[in-house]
Amino acid sequence: MARRRQIYEGKAKVLFEGPEPGTVVCYFKDDATAFNAKKKGTIEGKGVLNNRISEYLMIKLAEIGVPTHFVRRLNMREQLLKEVEIIPVEVVVRNVVAGSLAQRLGMAEGTALPRSIIEYFYKNDELNDPMITEEHITAFNWAHPHEMDEIVQLTLRVNDFLCGLFLGIGIRLIDFKLEFGRLYENDQVRVVLADEISPDNCRLWDIETNEKLDKDRFRRDLGNVPEAYVEVARRLKVIRDNEIEALKNRPRLVE
Question: CATH fold of 6-84+225-248, please?
Fold first, then answer.
């Protein structure tokens, strides 16, 4: 890592200059944050698990025709990605009432929604990622109307696919966050899925017990945080039994 030029460091990942033009290397950290980094901690092994989980989901989405920035996993903690211009909009899909939606509307968590809801948030930590509308996005030129049409279509497609995939392993996809970027290739620009898909940015509940298998365990001090990430990876079959045992034997959450 020391020989590479660092491009960016976020809450959970570090980006380095890639081995060839138009690529970046993404390193997954064990750092955990919540409430816009007001709460911080470390979940040992989280970077390894999120790397594997996101790799698997990005590959599966590409197989159904969803364009992504993912190229390949390089090692336990790193991925090779296509370099994209991130659109500064977080797209949140809600299938069940939870989190901030429950707080805003005074509804009980777990309430089924009549249909999936898409919400948008301006990607700006200093402003605490304020909620915005599509009119804000197009008025301030964060994304063009035709890009928003594409983002909505891709988001709904991703939601339908992931809901089915997680259902098959006994997990309800409650809600999740997506990010998109502009990929510049051969004098053309297209919108692609970017960032990651993992228990860091998805709410995942066990179908039978409603046990939370995501970062809410860290946010809400529910305990067994690493175990939840391991369980998702285990059900997706992206880590081997000996790797699971190694992760289980590591130190637990440090705050």
Answer: Phosphorylase Kinase; domain 1 (3.30.200)
